[in-house]
Amino acid sequence: MSTAAFRERTWPPRWPGWRQLPREARDTLFLLAVIAWTVLPHASHLPAWTIVLTAIVLVWRGRLALVGGALPGRWVLVVVLAIAIGLTFWSYRTLLGKEPGITLAVALMALKTLELRARRDAFVIFFLGFFIILTHFLYSQSLPVAAAMLVSVWGLLTAVVLAHMPVGQPSLRQASGLAARTALFGAPVMALLFLLFPRIGPLWGVPQDGISTTGLSNTMKMGSLSEVASDDSIAMRVRFEGEPPPPAERYFRGPVLTRFDGVEWRPAGLPFAAPGVPPRPPLLKTRGEPIRYEVTLEPIRLASIPLLEATTSISPIDGFRVSARDDLQWLADRQVFERVRFKAEAYTQFTLGPPRRIGELSESLELPAGYNPRTIAWAKSFRDDPLNRNVGGTVFAHSLLQYIRKGGYSYTLAPGDYGRDGVDEFWLDRKEGFCEHFASAFVVVMRAVGIPARVVTGYQGTDPAPVDGFYVIRQSSAHAWAEFWQTGVGWVRADPTAAVAPDRINRSSRLAPQAGFVAEAFDTMSPQLFAALRSSWEAVNNRWNQWVLNYSRGQQLDVLKNIGFQSPSWEDLALLLIGTLSAFALAGAAWAWFDRHRIDPWVRQLERMKRALRSVGLPAAPHEAPRTLAARIRERIGAAGEPLAAAFDALEAQRYSRASAKRPDRELTRRFAAAARRLKTALAR
Questions:
Q1: Are 461 and 508 in contact (CB under 8 A)?
Q2: For the sheet containing 304-305, what is the strand order?
Q3: Could you give the CA distance from residue 19 to residue 672 in angstroms, rounded to a whole number?
Q4: Beta 340-346 vs 291-297: how paired, if at all?
Q5: What SS3 state is found at 293?
């Protein structure tokens, strides 16, 4: 295809084939593809107009590259930029902050491609591209995002290499290979900085990565936890030291809900650790041996940290102040919007109480006036039964659980919507519900007969088998149970769900919603394969979380211990970092000294041919190109020097043509030297 035909401006432009594209068009299209790949993950974070504008600009620039069209004028760019700024302000009501800044950076990078005329313009795009790669980690630090951005880095480095190859038609394979090798050479320094560079806080503490839209909350309504059963995402991972507790004792305590307005349950105290108040341990009596365990908690929407009942101590968490309340709930001083890792110690056999705060028991007796009158009346009649009339709280609770077990109740994820008096409707009419229905009704009945009670939410149970040593607790394990007050004993756990669905507690057999088409196909084909694939992926994610995202200051000091430091400190860390970087610098200087005399093999071949040419009596300056020397030979010697001129033409073609050779042709140098000797002999005659 001729150049004129290629530059014919038609739409859509004809595709001549990747190998037939001029280098400028090929390199531009490659850069546009890298930009599109880099921006694509932002589609779920940025306004839709940003992605649409970026796509339009990239397609426009790609068309101009294909047809060889002129780039738009400056005023066109100014107008489009003004529109982008206006839309950014309209979307966020400001031009400052994370989201507006990233939005404008994406728009600027796309617009910059429309004035890609010189190498300096390309370097501006490269800089913006590397910056936008970093911005992805402000939203997510998951392994797929990291892998996608690794591809973007490789693509941008390839574009940088192409920008430094001003002559010839170097292949993308050659440029991408050089970019990959360059990145690998820098990998040891990157790993060193990752291991030893001092950390002020967690390595990645900015994004709210992995925060589930469901999960635990500081409030609970009937039906709120049944929505969580469809969320199979991981809430936390737990690794036990020694024998793990049985599934029936794996209660991970979260928000404790005392106040009830007839529809919604809320906590009695602050939903976070009060600043300036020194922590004091709850009045807790424990029995048996402690259970020591390690927790990796995914980001949540709460300051309440779900921990195994009854956790008595936890290790410090970087960036948080954590303390236990009297209700045995562990609270941070702010919402946990980042993944945290810590160790803890708990006792599964315990008693909690007596109350230390005035009014604690009275708050646990309050019922809103006018709500659920039929259940309250039923509770009083049940209490008046001769078997229940004068018994204590524990015996009455046991009797109530027996009623649930034999009363025709069923455990389901789809009980339907309940009206204003939801407890009445559940307890006396439908008798179908999830764990929050049973816990709410149980507490209402206990309060109606004068026994203090409250709702406890959290997680119950784990996946059956550990993954990479960690037991996985999913959002679908969210659970609600009850506590009631027994005089002389304290707060006693009662789980009404266990009365109607014992497998849910004893075996962690959670109800599951109907699977999607893909998951159902995998389960139909091979349930074991699907479970194995999910476990393997979660194990890889766990390693990523443990060794990359949660790499902390303590682990840095552990690294120093492992290499021989007895009592490592920050001074040791700084000295080791400086010393190792200095060693890398010296090694680089030594390599530069060794490499300083190395010459491009093509230049070396050209110099040999120039020396042979000088022996014939023709001048050959160091800066002169092969075609210049070929023209001089033809001008001064004529037909007798044609073999020498043809050799210079062949050298230039091998080095700079579209199908350039990978290595110099040594036979060409030998033929040229022989021809020069013959010509010298002929001229001497």
A1: yes
A2: 304-305, 330-332, 322-324
A3: 32
A4: antiparallel
A5: strand
CB neighbour class for 682 (10 Å; exposed up to 12, middle 13-18, buried from 19): exposed
Farthest-apart Cα atoms in the chain, separation: 139
For residue 233, with 0-12 CB atoms within 10 Å meaning exposed, 13-18 middle and 19 or more buried, which class applies? Answer: middle
Mean pLDDT value across residues 361-383: 92
Q: Are strands 304-305 and 471-474 parallel, antiparallel or unpaired?
A: unpaired
Neighbours of 467 (CB within 10 A): 19
With a cut of 90, say whether residue 612 has pLDDT above it. no
* Amino acid at site 355: P
Q: Which strand (E) or helix (H) includes residue 562?
A: helix 553-562
> What is the Cα–Cα distance from 150 to 183, expressed in whole angstroms?
11
Q: Coil, strand, or helix at residue 408?
A: coil
Counting Cβ atoms within 10 Å, is residue 621 exposed (0-12), middle (13-18) or buried (19+)? exposed
Question: What is the rounded distance in angstroms from the CA atom of residue 433 to the CA atom of residue 261?
Answer: 20
pLDDT bin (cut points 50, 70, 90) of residue 382 is very high
Q: 438 pLDDT band (50/70/90 cuts)? A: very high
- Tokens 């036990």 locate to 240
Q: pTM, whole model, 2 decimals? A: 0.64
Report the pLDDT averaged over residues 119-131: 87
**Cα(216)–Cα(234) distance, rounded to whole angstroms?**
13
* Residues pairing with 264 in the sheet: 221
Q: Under a CB-based contact definition with an 8 Å cutoff, are residues 119 and 187 in contact?
A: no
What is the sign, positive or negative, of the torsion defined by CA atoms of 573, 574, 578, 584? positive
Of 238, 316, 319, whose CA–CA distance to 279 is shortest?
316
Asked if pLDDT for residue 204 goes beyond 60, the answer is no
Closest to 68 in 3D by CA, of 126, 113, 28: 28
Is the four-CA dihedral 230, 235, 239, 240 of positive or negative sign? negative
String of DSSP letters for 155-193:
HHHHHHHHHT--SS---HHHHHHHHHHHHHHHHHHHHHH
Please provide the distance, in angstroms rounded to a whole number, between the alpha carbons at the two ends of the chain.
Answer: 50
Place of tokens 């009662």: 494
Mean pLDDT, to the nearest integer, of 125-150? Answer: 86
For the cut 50, the answer to whether the pLDDT of residue 6 exceeds it is no
Question: Is the confidence at residue 343, as pLDDT, over 80?
Answer: yes
Residue 381 predicted with pLDDT over 80? yes
User: In the 3-class helix/strand/coil scheme, how is 438-486 assigned residue by residue?
Assistant: HHHHHHHHHHHCCCCEEEEEEEECCCCCCECCEEEEEHHHEEEEEEEEE
Residue 8 pLDDT: 47
Give dist(CA 405, CA 490) in Å, integer: 25
Task: Give the DSSP letter string of 196-258.
Answer: HS--SS-SS-S--TT--SSS--S-EETTTTTTGGG--SEEEEEEESSSPPPGGG-EEEEEEE-
Predicted pLDDT of residue 610 = 84
The residues that bridge with 324 in the sheet, in sequence order, are 330
Sheet order of strands, 264-266 included:
220-221, 264-266, 259-260
Reported as a single tens digit per residue, the pLDDT across 21-55 is 788 888 888 999 999 999 998 888 889 999 999 99
